[in-house]
Amino acid sequence: MENNRETILKLAVAAVVALFVLDRFVVEPSIEAWKEQSERLGVLRDKVTKGRSLIEREASLRGRWADMLKTDMTEDNSAGEAEVYKALGRWGTRSRVSFTSLTPNWRQHEEGGYDTFECRVTATGDQASIGRLIYEIEVDPLPARIEECELNTRDALGKQLTMTMRFSFVRINEPGKVLP
Fold first, then answer.
1. Strand arrangement, sheet containing 144-153
2. Residue 74: DSSP 8-state
3. Which helix (H) or strand (E) holds 119?
């Protein structure tokens, strides 16, 4: 009976050790590998979904890209600046704001294949005219982007506002580099 009990205990200890080794070296790594594989599959599914979406919208995106290239700023810096100054005049006239300062600055983005012409302006007017100025910038065919905008009141009632804004215009140097 004693010998039988020892055999059963040895078998039980061996089974527990075998289960521990099996769990530690087979089951846990397998579960971890399945989790990692599931995460990779999720990332790949997202990429496939985005890719299909781009393929479905390809004609529209290429059309918009062609339109952007048509309205792109000219290669010549002074001609590009002249376009911006004309646009500022248009926006000021249409929105009835007065510009009190303008600070232009060219920035090159060689890795992206484009340059930007940044302008920091200060404009004064009432709330409607400031809102109209922002609208005019956004709908203008010139490729402008508002980067920063800060409003301050000039009177106790808040009827006269001063807006300091930084916006930029893009000039694409290598059209094929940005979107093939």
1. 98-109, 114-125, 161-172, 144-153
2. P
3. strand 114-125
Query: In angstroms, rounded to a whole number, what is the distance separating the alpha carbons of residues 88 and 117?
Result: 13
Residue 31 burial by Cβ neighbours in a 10 Å radius (0-12, 13-18, 19+):
exposed
Identify the bridge partners of residue 168 per DSSP, sorted by sequence position.
118, 145
Nearest CA among 61, 175, 67, 168 for reference residue 114: 175
Q: How far apart are CA 6 and CA 18, in angstroms?
A: 18
Which residue type, as a one-letter code, is found at position 159?
Answer: K
- Helix 58-70 × helix 28-56 angle, to 10°: 60
DSSP 73: P
pTM of the prediction?
0.58
Give tens-digit pLDDT for 12-66: 888 888 888 888 888 899 999 999 999 999 999 999 999 999 999 998 888 877 7
